[in-house]
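Next comes a concrete protein, fold included:
___
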Amino acid sequence: MAGAPLAISLGDPAGIGPEVILGAWARLRAERRAPPAFVVGGPELLRSLAERMGIDCTIVPIADPAEAVFAAAAGLPVLAGLDGALTPGKPSPDGARLALASLQWATKFALSEVAVGLVTAPVAKGALAAIGWDYPGQTEFLADACGQPYRDAVMMLAGPSLRTVPLTVHVPLAEVPALLSAELIIHKARIVAAGLRRDFGVLSPRLAIAALNPHAGEGGQFGDEEARLITPAIAALQAEGIDAFGPVPGDALFTPRARAGYDAALCMYHDQALIPLKALEVDDGVNVTLGLPIIRTSPDHGTAFDIAGQGVADPGAMAAAIVMAADMAAARVNS
């Protein structure tokens, strides 16, 4: 595994995935920060897109991932044998099939340690569902591929100044209280603490646990979840030696002073975690999957079909995802 490249999945070719891959690689190369990596499929698609958009990124087709480290001297290595049409802004079944094949192969390379980690470009879940995809998202697909239950794959959103973890994700807000439990908080906090130690070199992770209700329930006036679920979970984590504290009211959790006091904030629902991350790290936010045997990062944005091919998509989050995956791989080697 040492010295192996990162595998980058292509994402939906009708979205901004291919162009932010090109833009990120061009930026990282210019800054001399590009780690060994290769894109899984789409050499002609990417070549055409680079030419159309005027992106200075030479495409170097490779026949085997082992060629990536040496091919990178000449440009962006791209695995040949898997390709499709360039159709910015126009999702199609063929595009979804290409995105899925790229993801499947990239995952196999990571699992077999042919690749040191996996960076996934955005896919369209609706387009994938139309061709038989049966997963809520790429995270659940990866958990299944790794032979682990979905609950062990923990989403962490990370940027230069903040890391957040939503304990519940794509569910209606009205269902969140019933889905929360002390056991869920404890389970995911353990995975986050272990992931921070293993992949980020944080030897003694500090975990801030958010409240669910305004003012952390105000002594039960605004809800009892803090006293009934969250506080007992924090006590149990502390008894295990995990530096967890809270529940911290959501309106106090993300101030500059508060952020300096923890390494990750565990939030009770999707928007509680993603709004501050996107407000603070809109161009640098990375979606990291903790709890899996493989490294996986992704830019914290979607396919953005409405702006695909227009040259306005910012490649910053993809560049950050590539660098973060390489840093995580290095941390695992050094741990």
About this structure: The longest strand covers residues 243-248. The CA atoms of residues 75 and 306 lie 29 Å apart. The chain has two domains: 6-151+292-334, 161-277. The chain has a mean pLDDT of 94.
